Amino acid sequence: MRSTSSLSNLMVVAVSTLLFSCGDSVTNLAYRGAPLFQFEGQVEVQGAFSGGEHDIRMSIFWLPDAGWTTEEQWAEQPSTSIRVEFPSTFSIKIYHPPRESDYFQRGVGGQITQAIGRLVLYDDLNGDGRRDAGEPVVGEAPNQGIMYASKDLEAEASFTGVAVKRGFSLIHYPIRCFSRLSPRQDVACLSPLGDPCLTNADCCGPDEDCDTYGGVCLFENSGTQPFPRGYCAAPLQSVGCESVANGSVVPSKTIGRPVEIRIVNRVGRLILKACDSTLSCRDDYFCDPAHRVCLPDLPVALVLDPGLVPSEICVDPEERVDTP
Fold it and tell me: Which residues, at least 6 apart from 71, have a Cβ–Cβ distance to it below 8 Å?
């Protein structure tokens, strides 16, 4: 996912100027210095509103409970609230970290060091620039969100099970929230994980029996989660993959990691290319800090739909449906 200025030539829909200052009125335009983090994105309209005027705003909502309750318990950061107008681009600038009370409360060892958030669209019925009780949620970014860490965290201290850097990051949803991924689950696969593809046959390794050891091509138009120029993955139980120690290098094989992923509105689990930095990923992909696998580096994509049912954020083994 792209942040800062890397999306300046993209986007479809839009918003007005960002209004700042955590805890202050969203009409306070006082200079706040350089933002801690910023990103841009687009909105896709999939539903229609009934009569009357609507004041659609977008804001970051932090999830102290990982989003397992209703939107009435999400914690908005009003300083990030912006009005959505059509058509144009939107840009979010964040000048303050979330409040500690909005951090993810179920972190490893009881430490409150990380926050995860949704990017949400809502109808501001009373026009006060923030979401009040009863104001409807009408859109979201179904596959993308934001994470904040109050300090650098080693894998053992992060609820995602991978090391994270201090500050804000854009991440892909869903994620594991209650069961951390062990590095011992890294695998070495014959399939060229992360390579471009047009068909499943492109995801076979050299001299590989595709029927037995073949990978899976995630296509460019894979529903709500596109993969530019295709992406080779491997099924969870692929006989072409073997367990390896974290950080291992296996000749003629690609190191992968099992990850929950939403494709065509279905959450499954696949083996994707593992990474330590975006330098390990091809163009149009980045090393997602919540998963440490290469995922599409796309503009933040929100869906505006008055009939929206918010997508799940947390997927843990007992909730997961494995992708065959």
Answer: 61, 120, 137, 310
